[in-house]
Write a structure and sequence with these properties.
Elements: E1 3-13, E2 26-37, E3 40-46, E4 56-67, E5 69-75, H1 89-101, H2 109-123, E6 126-132, H3 137-150, E7 155-157, E8 159-160, H4 173-187, E9 194-199, H5 207-219, E10 224-229, H6 233-242, H7 249-255, E11 263-267, H8 273-282, E12 285-288, H9 290-295, H10 303-308, E13 312-315, H11 327-340, H12 347-361, E14 379-382, H13 388-394, H14 400-410, E15 416-421, E16 424-425
Parallel strand pairs: 1-4, 5-6, 6-7, 7-9, 8-9, 9-10, 10-11, 11-12, 12-13
Antiparallel strand pairs: 1-2, 2-3, 4-14, 14-15, 15-16
């Protein structure tokens, strides 16, 4: 049995912080030791007290060791179309997205994109993500096969879409059920993979396909569900035209049994009071996607309103409308969105949400999201002096909170000094770095 000890400053959240001075919400060790055996954390404590016999010690001082970042919503099949100019969501979908996703019918395309996609995640310190694949089953196979090769805990699924898209992207209600059923059997809980039943959004699914999604959720209650909700005013209007009997957009999903504790609702910006209550009562998760919401001009997420009404909240990059794979950049943009809302988003809250908070939203806090015994050793090492500008600013930093805010404001992939996936070095072993 191999044993490794990572030495450095250790930070791990134990619950959501009540405020910027809530020192009881996290563990911080100035000279800490994270002991790892067979990919799992076995002990966390002061380095001086760690048993070091027969262990390989890797010294990351003065850098900060944390749980790896978790990204709650992105599209791996859109990796090559980031930074595509458009004025709004529906224009962007029709001009770029659907064109790009049709490429996944080509032999070998999904495999090549999957490699680049996972390299990008690792470079930016993301060790778990929840992804939409295309409507092609081979895109799902490539997604999970590459995750398995890297031993990463990943969640994903084939989009179900049988209308309002190019013919080459459309499935049918029955084929989407059959394909998803087969993919769940092939990949769910194989290795560290977890499947997400993925009706893209109401505009691209007929009532018949929604019924098939409902059947899949009933048959596979341990799978996650992911879809999009209330991102854009035109999207909401069109959805209600397609489902005129629904009380509102959320009510479409609700009527088909798609609101559960495992449901992840991307965006959730423009919600009325009934919708907010329905999401809270179901225990579903509203996923905040700040960079894509700003990029497409979709709106400003109201985090405080969600929390006040008991809605669970996650955070995500939403590649490829999102403009960076970096969760550091994402929490920086989240901070700015909430500033415009008149809401505070302190650094403890932002780093908690990107790690343990997102793990809790996925129901996986016992597995990932913390630096604690029994958790997977999916870890990152953060260097707050990674660039000349960061080094200059660090000369005046006096507290941990100031350092975290520096990292989220000025940091990017260069601030990710190392990544560990199940205890194995992942970033420094990438080619081309």
């Amino acid at each position: 049995m191999s044993r490794t000890i990572l030495r450095g400053r250790v930070l791990s959240f134990e619950r959501a912080p009540d405020g910027i001075d809530d020192v009881g919400s996290y563990l911080y060790l100035e000279d800490g030791a994270v002991s790892i055996e067979d990919g799992v954390i076995t002990a966390v404590g002061d380095f001086a007290a760690a048993i070091k016999a027969d262990a390989v010690v890797i010294d990351h001082r003065p850098n900060l060791i944390m749980a790896g970042f978790i990204d709650m919503h992105l599209h791996y099949v859109q990796s090559q179309m980031m930074a595509s100019y458009a004025g709004s969501l529906l224009e962007w979908l029709n001009t770029y997205t659907f064109v790009e996703e049709q490429k996944f019918a080509q032999q070998g395309h999904a495999d090549a994109v999957a490699v680049d996609f996972y390299d990008a995640l690792i470079r930016h310190g993301t060790t778990t993500a929840v992804a939409y694949c295309s409507s092609h089953p081979r895109s799902v196979d490539a997604f999970f096969a590459e995750a398995q090769r890297r031993n990463m805990l990943m969640v994903g699924g084939k989009v179900m879409m049988d209308r309002n898209a190019p013919e080459d992207l459309l499935d049918t209600a029955q084929s989407s059920y059959d394909d998803t059923k087969a993919l769940i059997a092939r990949w769910h809980k194989r290795g560290r993979g977890l499947y997400a039943i993925s009706p893209r959004f109401a505009i691209t699914s007929t009532p018949e396909q929604m019924e098939m999604a409902q059947a899949l959720v009933a048959e596979h209650g341990d799978c996650h569900v992911q879809t999009h909700l209330s991102e854009n005013d035109a999207e909401i209007t069109y959805s209600m035209e397609l489902y005129p009997d629904a009380p509102d957009y959320t009510g479409i999903y609700e009527s088909y049994g798609l609101l559960t504790e495992r449901t992840l609702l991307g965006h959730s910006i423009h919600l009325n009071h009934r919708e907010t209550a329905a999401i809270a009562n179901a225990g579903a998760v509203a996923v905040f996607c700040p960079t894509s919401n700003l990029f497409l001009g979709s709106g400003l997420f109201d985090r405080d309103r969600m929390l006040k009404h008991g809605v669970r909240v996650g955070l995500a990059t939403d590649i490829g409308a999102g403009t960076s794979f970096s969760m550091l950049k994402t929490i920086d943009e989240a901070y700015k969105v909430l500033q415009l809302r008149g809401q505070r988003f302190n650094p403890l809250a932002s780093f908690h949400l990107a790690t343990r908070g997102n793990a809790e939203a996925l129901g996986l806090a016992d597995t990932i999201g913390s630096v604690a015994p029994g958790r997977a050793a999916d870890l990152i090492v953060l260097d707050a002096r990674a660039t000349p500008t960061m080094r200059m600013r660090m000369a005046t930093v006096e507290t941990l909170v100031e350092e975290l805010f520096l990292l989220q404001t000025l940091g990017d992939d260069r601030a990710i000094a190392e990544v560990y996936v199940a205890g194995a070095r992942a970033k420094s072993t990438l080619g081309g770095l």
